[in-house]
Every structure is written in C-alpha cells, then in structure tokens.
Amino acid sequence: MDWTLIAALLAMGAFGGFCAGLLGIGGGMILVPFITMIFSAKGFPPEVIVHMAIATSLGTILFTSLSSVRAHHLHGAVRWPIVALLAPGILVGSWVGPWIGKQLPAPTLALVFAVFISFSATQMLLNRKPAAGRELPGSAGMFAAGGVIGVLAGLLGAGGGFISVPFMSWCNVKIHNAVATSAALGFPIALAGTLSNVYFGWNVTGLPQYSLGFVYLPALAVIATASVMLAPLGARTAHRLPVQSLKKMFAVVLYCLAAYMLWKAVR
After folding, report:
1. How far apart are the C-alpha atoms of 185 and 203, rounded to whole Å?
2. Where are the domains of the chain?
3. What is the pTM of this model?
4. Please, what's the b/e burial string for 136-166 (b: 16 or more CB within 10 A of its CB; e: otherwise)?
5. Are 261 and 53 in contact (CB under 8 A)?
6. What phi and psi, each to the nearest 5 degrees, are found at residue 74?
C-alpha cells in the first residue's frame, strides 16, 4: 500500500473508532461507506467492493469493540445480563447475515444498507417515548431479537448498534447503558460475521491479493490499529454528553452515511 492510502485508512480508523466508543455502533456504519470509497478508488472489482468493505469493517470491530467496551465497563454502564441473553442469537444471526449478503449484487446490498440506517436514524431523531411499563422480553424473545440484530449486522458490516441501541431504548434501557451494552455486543457480532465472510468468500475469484475470503487484510490491520486507540476516547466522551445530544449526533451521522450508500446503489 502507498503512504497516501495508509494515511487515509489511519484517519478513517481513528474517526470510526471514536464513533464506535461514542455511539456504540461498532464503527461499521461509519467505516463501510468510507472503505467502499477507498476500494473503488483503488480499482477493486466493482462486483465485490461492497462485500469486501462490509467484511473488512466487521474484522475491525473485533478489535474496536474490546477497546470500547473496556472504557464503558469502567464507567459501570454495560448491562452484562442483557449481553448474555442477546449473544446466542447474535452469534447465529451474524453467521447467516454474510451468507445472505453474498447472494445479493453490490448495488442491492448498498441500497439495503442505506434503508436500514435511515430507519435507525429516524427512530432516534423522533425520540418517541417508550411505554412506561415496557421491558425487555424473556429469554426466547431476547434470542430472537439477538438473531435479528446479528443477521442485519452481519449483512451490513456493523456492530449492531444501529438496531440494538434503538431496541434497548424502546425497552426503557437508558441511552448510555444501551450504547455501552451495544459496544459489548459488537464482539460476538464481529467474530461470527468475520468468520462467515472468510468462509463464504474463500472460493470467490477475482479478489485482490492479500484478501482472506472477503476480508482485505492490509486495510484491516491499519484501520484496527487506529480504531483501538481512539475508541476509549469516544467512550469517555459519551458519558459526558446529555442524552438528547447523543441521540441527535447518532441520527445525523447515520443520515449522512445513508445518503452516500444510496448514491452508490443508484449510480
């Protein structure tokens, strides 16, 4: 890789890592559009660019989530019982998500990405108050919810915060706890999703050199290094911000990224 590419990946990783800690979104919603831009500029095969961006993003979350959740845990914000209930379904769903993604052409995958993050941004921006008595579902419901979160996160290359944070907020989990708990959920999502992308991309022809399945290893290494360094700063910042500011920030970031991916889908 040339130095300009390394610098771009470092800057992107730093920004993604900060947002991962700040918003509990694993960095994937930030990284996928930017990785798509860079892979497009490098002349990667168009039919695999979005798939590789998603797979590489998931790989970075393996490292970012550990760094981010440690900072949130030190604030006592992670709801570990929620993590334990959601994780089994998430592992299953995160393996299935990349398989679904492999069946879709790149423009369709980009469109799906744009639609889902726009939906999540709207839910946050509307700030609808959940019913006072609404609580998290039982074990079966949490497994099902984890499965849905895992499928969407594995499909879109994100840490799942774009759906797990609104889901927990809807069930009256405080936003700071929801963000911190979502950061903890990023690891099982990234683990199953990355392994799935390696497996389902293993025999795909035309992938660039240094690819492991759909995962592009040089970009993974550079982005992960920068992300891990900035994620704790984002997490500390999150605990200093008021709830409404955090929700609005989450929504604005997601809308901007949805717009780019929509453009990528229709161009």
Report:
1. 29
2. 3-266
3. 0.76
4. beeeeebbebbbbbbbbbbbbbbbbbbbbbb
5. no
6. -65, -25
